[in-house]
Amino acid sequence: MHTDTSPTLLITGGAGFIGSHLATELLQHGYGVRILDNLAPQVHGPDRQRPGHLDRRAEVFVGDIRDPHRLREALEGIDAVIHLAAVVGERSSMYRIEKYMSVNTTGTAVLLEALLDHPVERLIVASSSAVYGEGLYCSYNGTVYPKIRRSPGQTVKGDWEPRSPDGEVIYPLPTPETKEASPLSVYAVSKYDQEEMCRLIGDSYGIPTTILRLFSVYGPHQGYANPYSGMLTEYVSRLLQNLPVRLFEDGYQQRDFVSVHDAVRAFRLALESPGAAGGTFNIGSGRPYTFRTIANLLATITRRQHLSPVVTGTGRIGAIRHCIAEIGRAREVLGYDPAVTLEAGLLDLAAWVEAEIAQRQKVPAPLKIPTPSRLHV
Fold it and tell me: Rounded distance, CA 49 to CA 109, Å?
C-alpha cells in the first residue's frame, strides 16, 4: 500500500520492544508513524518517559488501548493500523488472568469498535505462535499428530517429550498455519481471541486484515524479564555477570528464534503485499534451535565458555516442548525471507546488553562485543 502520498500508520503498543523497531523500519521507508502506547511504568519507568531509542520522527499518543476516546483521537488521519498492544508472557498469564484478557481481548474489541467509525486500508495484527500450543508432530512411521499436550504427571517425572496417545515418543515437524489452534495458556487464548475477532470484523466490515503469528522474536531493547523469547536478554545479562544460564526442563526444548529486524520487515511486507489481505502468516526463521544451543552460543559470544548452563529439571505451567515455523506461505505471498543469521542476531543482542550494563554502571564495556555490520536489511 506504499504510495507517494506517504500513508500514516498507527502502531498500537508502538513504544515497546517490537514496536520501536517497527517505527524505525516504516519511517525509513517513507511512512508516517503515530504510536499509541500507555508507557507502562513496569516497562518505561515510573515517569512513563518516551524511550530514548524510539525514533524522534514518530508521533506518540500516550493512552490505553482500552480507552475509546483516546483511541479515536489517535486514529484521526490514519490510513492503516498495526496492532501490537498486548500483555505478553505465557507463564504470568496463568495467574494474572483478568489482566491478560482485559488488555489483549477487551483492548482489541475496543480497537475494532473504533475502526467501525474510522475504516482503514489495512489492519495488521501481531499474533503469536503460542496459539498452536505444541507444534506439529509425527511418529517414526509417519503418523502426524496435530494436537498434542503433555500431561502434568508426565512432566513431574521428568519425561519431557510429548507422546502419542499410545505412549510412543513423537518428533517435531515445522508447523504450518493450517495446524489447528490448541492454546495452552491464558496468553495464548487471548492472542487467538484477537485473531478471531479481527478476522470476523475485518470480513464483515470490509477491513482488509492480516494476521502475523510471531515466533520467538529477540533483539536489542528487549526487557530483561520479557518471557516472549525465552529470556535471551536475561541469559546474556547473567553471563556478563559471570553467572551461568539457567535452563528449564532438560534444555532440549526447540524454538524458532527470529531477529526483531526480520520480524519488523515482515510487517512492512504485509502492508505492501497485495495478496496479504485476509491471510495468516508464520513469521520466524524456519529453523529449530534448542535452549542449550542458544546458551552455548551466547557463552561463546560473551567469552564465558567456562560457564556451563545449569539444567534445573523443572517445568513451567503452560510451557510447550517444541514449536518451529513453516514459513513457506510468508515467503511466497509476502516475499519474506529471514536475512539475519542466529549468530549475527545473538551478537547484536549481546552487544546491546553489554552496553546497557556499562551505561548503568557508568563504566566502559569490558568486552566491547562488536555489533554486526549489516543487520538492518
Answer: 27
